[in-house]
Amino acid sequence: MEKERIGCVIVTHNRREMLYECLQKLINQTYPIKKIFIIDNASLDNTFEYLKEKRIFLEEKEIEENEFLCLTNNNYTEVYYYFSRKNLGGAGGFNIGLKKALDYNFSWIWFMDDDAEPKEDTLEKLLSFEGRGNASFLAPLVINKFNNEIEFRMHKLKIDTLKISEKYINPNEKLDFVYKLEANSFVGPLVNVNAIKKTGLIDESYFILYDDTDFTYRLYKNFGPGYLITQSIIYHIDKYQDYTK
What we know:
Layout: E1 6-12, H1 16-27, E2 35-41, H2 47-53, E3 57-64, E4 67-72, E5 78-84, H3 89-101, E6 108-113, E7 116-118, H4 122-126, E8 137-144, E9 155-156, E10 178-181, E11 183-184, E12 187-192, H5 193-199, H6 211-222, E13 226-236
Helix pairs in contact: 1-2, 5-6
């Protein structure tokens, strides 16, 4: 597989433990991520200090007020950490990270909520999809970490809940099917930079709800469909809900 440069954007707010677990999963991917952009939406739980205490960084330096550049303990992935004094919502936070990421020569940008935990081969399996060049985004299958069920609402076909025939699924089982999507949540979609350049940024008027659906739907309309790669698994740290209704 030809190596493609991958950037990742995470927005966080007062969930330092979840962010730490998410970050650990990201820096241990079998397909390496060059740079992770963390946008801290005015957290009050000393998130950055917590990450330093957990020794996830080998070194860190302040490059501007409230902006830090860190080298992670895999000795390859860099983290750009930005602390916003105002909570800009998911939409505003993702836009800050997205604008920063677009300054680099990435082929794909991985959007990641802070309560997501990809498996170690999630990114590698997304990038193994042969038709990826014409895809606006590639989405891993979202599975609730607590009950092991697919979170159907995360994957949207015709802006409706995607119904997969298997309600219960073993995440270790080999799954060979792919679905075309029109929209997806921000729990792990890998977005084609060419699609972003054709579509534009996230609509900040949504603040925190439906910003992901609107953005990925516009990617679909302007560039082409996204794809759910069901062999690629990501866990969502969410309390139990019946997503089939």
